[in-house]
Design brief:
CATH architecture: Up-down Bundle
Radius of gyration: 18 Å
Number of domains: 1
Oligomer: single chain
Order of helices and strands: HHHHHEHHEH
Helix content: over 70%
Amino acid sequence: MTTENSESQTEPPKSIVSYLWDLPNILSLAGLGCTTLAIYFIILEIYPAAMIGMIWAVAFDWADGLVARRMKGRVGSDQLFGGQLDVLIDIVSYGVTPAILLLSYGKFEPVFLLGAFLMLVAGAIRLSYFSVFGLAEGSKYTGLAIDNNSLALVFLFLFEGLISSGVFSVILYVVGLSLAALNVSMIKTPNLSGKPINVVLLASYTLAITVIYGWKLT
């Protein structure tokens, strides 16, 4: 971290918008676009469309990391900027979005505010911890990686139509708080996005989820 900072300080300053042309950043922003759509549809209570946006946000997030690791010639400032951008987008995609999902499904009743706040707190702490300490043993996360929140919630909503909305809101509340607890726990979890085979599995999952929820929209 110190070496990268010192290297970036010796580089000539670049304009802010110049980082838009970095492919990993483009993928990160595409994921942010999917998150924006997800939030929009959550507020409108069109949950199948929201789930599609949420899963594609994860897909773009994993893609930007895979591309960034394979790109050659990226200078220190590119890596630092991309890392900061990724963290900021993550808190929106995997912290703010699930919190709004809980509030929306709970009809914005005050009792759901506490759950939404705790989910946001856990997400912010989880990402801050990772920014400081990185991967444990160079290959594992400390605590459940926050992108798993969206993966789990998208899967959970497959059963939403089979359960009454009142019961499902309670289940969603409990699952949201459970994920938050796992996010800030000291358990060690593997870096799934670091392996190409897992990226292929996520791509298959993303396509399957898109088809299923797309069918629900028809």
